[in-house]
Amino acid sequence: MSTTGASRTWPPSRPSRGAHVLENLAALDRDGAYLGALTIPSAGREAKLYLDAVAHAQRHTPTRPGIVNGQIAAAIRGEFGDVRFTERTRGSELCVNPLMAMYFTVDLAGLADRLLYRDRLADTETQDEVRAVIEWFRQDVERRARRSIPH
Q: pTM higher than 0.70 for the full model?
């Protein structure tokens, strides 16, 4: 769907996978693998260092600026909504918001234990092999439908 010249509705009408993220964090918590959450306050030293690092990366990769880090940087600067800093996101509706500066931490071993195709990754050595395993797994499993957070 092109958004050029179209009026946009907020929030986006397409359900996100946000409910799945929270459901998965709850499962990790039940397993004892959820370690907590933290955020990067915009006035802190960490925010300045993060913003400097993102700006540095964007200067050195001008043809492929990092979309995720750019959106997190926008959130740290207090921006909100459909914030665009690269043509790479043209045609999509962004949702920059304060939650993007929040990090959820988990125990790596606990996270790996929940990876349903972990055993299939054991003999992989390259990114292409990992990608093939994931694609193969996705063909064999029924994926959960997108679900909105009900609030």
A: no
* Full DSSP string of 73-130: HHHHTT--BS----GGGTTS---B-GGGGEEEEE-HHHHHHT-TTHHHHTT--SHHHH
Q: Which residues contact 19 (CB under 8 A, 6 or more apart)?
A: 147, 148, 149, 150
97-113: per-residue pLDDT in tens? Answer: 999 999 999 999 999 99
DSSP 50-79: HHHHHHHHHHH-TTS--HHHHHHHHHHTT-
11: cis peptide before it, omega within 30°? yes
Distance CA 12, CA 91 (A): 13
